[in-house]
Every structure is written in C-alpha cells, then in structure tokens.
Amino acid sequence: MTFFDLCKACVKVLIDVINYAWQLICHMLRLTWRMWYVVITLTLLGIAGGLFYSRPENKMYEVTGIAYLNGPTLNGAKTRFEALNNGTPHYLNPNQTLWAMLGIDIDALRLSHFETFYLQDGLHNGVVDYVDWGHSASLKDTLNVRVPDMLALRFRIRKYLDIPFAEKAIMDYMNADPAFQEAYQLDLANRMREHQFDLAQVEKLDSLTTTFYFEQGDSYDTPQLVTKKRGQVVVGERKINLPIDQITKFFHGKQLRDTRLAYCTAPVVLQNHFVMNPRPINRISHSMIIGCIIGWLIGCIIAALIERRKEIIAWLNAKK
C-alpha cells in the first residue's frame, strides 16, 4: 500500500463515518416525529434533571491556588493531594472518608475533583512562565522545564462556600505528613545556610568596592600614565573594571532565594490564598443543554424499543 492509498482509505473511512452519523440522526428525527409523545416527555424530564442538578444549593465552583514545596517532591505532593479523590463512603471505611482525612465535620463542606498541575519555566531562569492547566507540556520537549518546587492545586467546592475553612483543612492535611516535615527541616536548614552565605558575599563585595574606590589615593582621580612600583616602571592608564554583569546576576539570584526563604514556613505553603472562580461548573444553561441531549437520546432509544416491541418479543420467544 502506498501513502496515497493509505490517505484514500482514511478519507473513505471518514466519509463512511459521516454518512452513518447523518443517517442515524435522520432516523432519530423520524423516530421523534412518529413517537413524539415519548421522546418529548423524556426530553423534558432531562431538562428538568439539568435544572435540578444546577439548583443553587448544588452549584459547584472551581478553587485554585499556587503552592510552594519546601522539601516535598513534586510527585510526593501530587500523590498526597490527589489521594483526597480516593475517599470512601462512611459505611465502607470510616477512616478513609474525605472528612476523616481532612479532619472536618461531614456537614461542613462539599469538596471534590482534587487535581494538580505543573508550572513551567520555559526560559529556565527560575521564573514561572505559565501553568500547564491542560497537561499539554510534554517532557520529551526540552523547552518544557517543570518548576521543581511549585505546584498548582485545584478542587471543587459546593454547598457552603467557606474557602478559608477549606484552605486551612487542606493545608493542615498536606503538612501533617511526617515525611514532609522531615524533608522541610532539611530544606529550611539548607536555605538558611544559603542565606548566610549570600550575606557574607554581600559584605565581601562591599569591602572589595570600598577598598578599590577609597584606598587608592589620587591615582583614580588623576590617572597616571607612568607608575613606579617595586623598582619597576609601568606605563599605562589604570581603570576600574568591576564584574558588573556577574554582580547583577548574583543579586538577582539572591532576591529569588530571599523570596523563597520568606515562604519557607511549612512543608507546603500557598503563594496566596485559594481563589474561587465565580462562574459555576454546573451553570443552568450548561446543565439544561446536557440534560436535553441526554433526555432526547434516552427517549429515542425507548421509542425504538416500543416501536419494535413485537420483533423483540418474537426474538425472545424464539427457540433457536
């Protein structure tokens, strides 16, 4: 088979699928016309179900936040946060319910759909460029560099929209892991040592520039073309060539390290508070459309079964 034959076969399959879908839709429309009382009834029930699902006390909202990881690894924090999705019913295992893991009352909150997302550093300069909300950044692409100590968290909340209460419960749960606490102590010690080293380098840098500027006498103000030193005569003009680019780079890195040290107060620390998207997931228009489609499909299936009930009964009564 040549490449042209392969393309021709793929196009033929695509055309056949489109034709089959068109015939199926036409058949469903004709069935809706013949059995309108069945299909319309179930369609209206589907719309009513969508309205019931989107009632005010059942609306779900997405809540997101960016977390710093002070010691825990990306996979460790991801596993622990998404483990909240594995909460079991109370009758099955009361110790593994979502409320037991979070340590809150069962009627306090309604949380679900716990997800994590990686942050990408495309320029590899220690600054976050974007959050991979769609999980589309492939590790095979060398431009996709994950930030090793930051993770985006997202979950859904409904009923009582007490975001601060949910935030405290989730962060207490994340920081209660003994392994996270041990890793945090090591990470804090390393960052404190790094901070002391940066301060020492600043003092040395200040001493270097002070010596160069103020302990050279008048040699800098009146550059000498001929200088006598230790019995040798040096001809030339003395100039200051400080490594400004390296100093600027050092202070930029120090600023990033100081910022990270300020957030190093627990194994997992939020960059800011959790923020709720004011647009609900199960809004009325969305739920009504989905309910209408589901109701119409179920109505067509039931209408087809009713229309062919004699054939179905004959097939069931057949001995062979």
Rg, rounded, reads 34 Å
The geometry reads as: elongated
Looking at the chains present, what oligomeric state does this protein adopt? single chain
What composes the largest sheet?
6 strands, antiparallel
Mean pLDDT: 84
Number of strands: 8
Annotation field: number of helices: 9
What class would the helix/strand composition place it in? alpha+beta
The SSE string, one letter per element, is HHEHHEEEHHEEHEEHH
Note the beta-strand portion.
Answer: 15-25%
What can you see in these coordinates?
There is one protein chain. This protein is an alpha+beta fold and 320 residues long. Helices cover 52% and strands 15% of the residues. It has nine helices and eight strands. The protein has helices at residues 3-34, 36-53, 74-82, 98-102, 163-175, 178-214, 244-262, 284-307, 309-317, and strands spanning 60-69, 110-120, 130-131, 146-158, 226-229, 232-235, 268-270, 275-276. The strands form two sheets. Strands 1, 2, 3, 4, 7 and 8 form a six-stranded antiparallel β-sheet that branches. The chain has a two-stranded antiparallel ribbon with strand order 5-6. Strand 5 (226-229) and strand 6 (232-235) form a beta hairpin. Helix 2 (36-53) runs antiparallel to helix 8 (284-307) and helix 6 (178-214) runs antiparallel to helix 7 (244-262). It is elongated, with a radius of gyration of 34 Å. Residues 217-222 have low confidence and may be disordered.
